[in-house]
TrEMBL record:
Protein name per its UniProtKB record: Cellulose-binding Sde182 nucleoside hydrolase-like domain-containing protein
Listed Pfam families: Sde182_NH-like
Protein species of origin: Rubripirellula reticaptiva
Domain Cellulose-binding Sde182 nucleoside hydrolase-like positions: 43-284
Gene3D superfamilies: Ribonucleoside hydrolase-like (3.90.245.10)
Length: 444
């Protein structure tokens, strides 16, 4: 009798645990299914360095456009480092124009090509100076205008490139800050724009922002990449030959990268109001104090700093300096101009995008600095650092450093790659819209 009781008890416990686990999975699936694809509409402005050194922004723009019927897109801003310009966005919109006849048979909420052209703006084309801002641009002014509209919904700003226009908008109109929800693809972009980033961290720490320095890599790294799900095979089967947008995508890069697309995925499926919840755009933790390392000397490879942090070198110019000192820090593929201060020093800011050692050298017309060399070792954050969120960054989110969520060295990437079959499968269905009109619509 006792054994029978134990069996029944164990079975009841098992069923309870199984039911709880099943319910947990159902709740997680439900959370991941929330968002724009579930009927919620989000106001969106995209700031992109499309046309710059990496063709993946073209891919992300194609993806954005085939989902533009479920989002209220209010701005497309060109904010590049290098050659990209507003015209690069317009080139993608020309492809959208050719596919629009088919797309609108699936949804009458697809914006017209001319409506999208009208909200395409040119933003900042130069890296911000040491102060972090320079002057307003067409893009930064448009961002302010959108944020000030009489709409109770927040404005989601998806930053795929330079963060300069966002910094400028906050500088010019700090009253817009409460209205913004920012998803920033950091990493390499932060590397090229540390001054604008540091301006926001120093002066607008109340900003609601996701700083995704490595999580975004889960869109093209990890997950099931066998057969049809492989980066190249997926493009061959589901993108190339699928309308003008599909052919344009394939012509820029015949393999999935789309490194900025997690910012869109975050709105499509997940819980955008709570970045700690799972979704296509990743899952994040409250940010700890943003890493910032300041040295009043040349560093060496023995000196360490946190990856994706900001290094500031403050070096004396010496007494025997020219009337107009010119200095440049040469590190990896960057030439970083120095900021000459009134106190007789020059300042350099550098942001490492990988955990490794970075040697550097200085080129200058200042004899005391010219030819000097040094280095810095960039290291991953401690796995438990997320247990200590910054009390002053109450709305700042970042990559989860827990090892179980990493794809190799890329923290947080598994929180995106786990959804690979879901988001790519849905994207494949969307690309069919470019290729053929809706059967239902054509029968009417």
């Amino acid at each position: 009798m006792l054994d029978q009781f134990n069996v029944v008890t164990r079975l009841a416990v098992f069923l309870f645990i199984f039911a709880a686990a099943t319910d947990g999975l159902a709740q997680e699936a439900s959370r991941a299914a929330d968002g724009a694809l579930a009927g919620k509409r989000y106001r969106v402005v995209v700031s992109t360095d499309i046309g710059g050194t990496d063709p993946d922004d073209f891919q992300s723009m194609v993806h954005l456009l085939v989902y533009s019927d479920v989002l209220d897109i209010e701005g497309l801003i060109s904010s590049p480092f290098g050659p990209g310009r507003k015209q690069d966005i317009l080139d993608v919109l020309d492809c959208y124009d050719r596919d629009y006849t088919n797309l609108k048979t699936y949804s009458h909420q697809y914006p017209t090509p001319d409506a999208l052209r009208a909200i395409t703006k040119q933003g900042e084309t130069e890296i911000a100076p040491h102060i972090g801002v320079r002057a307003s641009t067409e893009g930064s002014r448009w961002l302010v205008e959108c944020a000030r509209r009489d709409d109770p919904r927040p404005l989601h700003v998806l930053v795929w490139g330079g963060i300069e226009d966002l910094a400028q908008a906050l500088h010019d109109a700090p009253d817009i800050l409460p209205k913004l929800r920012v998803y920033y693809i950091g990493g390499p972009n932060k590397k090229w724009g540390p001054n604008a980033y540091q301006y926001i961290a120093d002066h607008h720490s109340d900003l609601w922002i996701i700083e995704a320095n490595s999580t975004y890599r889960g869109w093209f790294t990890g997950g099931d990449q066998s057969g049809n799900w492989g980066n190249k095979e997926f493009v061959r089967q589901h993108i190339a030959g699928h309308g003008a947008l599909g052919d344009f995508f394939n012509s820029k890069m015949n393999s999935i990268k789309m490194g900025d697309t997690p910012s869109v995925g975050w709105l499509l499926s997940g819980k955008p109001e709570d970045p700690s919840q799972p979704g296509w755009g990743g899952q994040f933790v409250r940010a700890w104090t943003r890493p910032y390392s300041r040295f009043d000397r040349l560093t060496t490879p023995d000196d360490k700093m946190e990856v994706f942090g900001v290094l500031e070198l403050v070096l004396p110019l010496g007494s025997n300096r020219p009337e107009k000192p010119e200095t440049q820090l040469m590190v990896e593929n960057q030439v970083i101009p120095g900021h000459v201060s009134d106190n007789g020093t020059v300042k350099f800011r550098f942001c490492p995008k990988a955990a490794k050692t970075y040697p550097f050298s200085i080129r200058s017309n200042v004899v005391a600095l010219d030819g000097k060399t040094g280095g810095i070792k960039s290291v991953a954050p401690a796995a438990d650092i997320a247990l200590h969120p910054s009390p002053t960054l109450s709305h700042w989110w970042t990559d989860d450093p827990a090892p179980q969520f990493a794809e190799r060295e890329h923290h947080g990437a598994k929180t995106v790659s786990r959804w690979r079959e879901d988001f790519l499968g849905d994207f494949a269905k969307r690309m069919l819209r470019c290729k053929t009109p809706s059967i239902t619509e054509t029968k009417r």
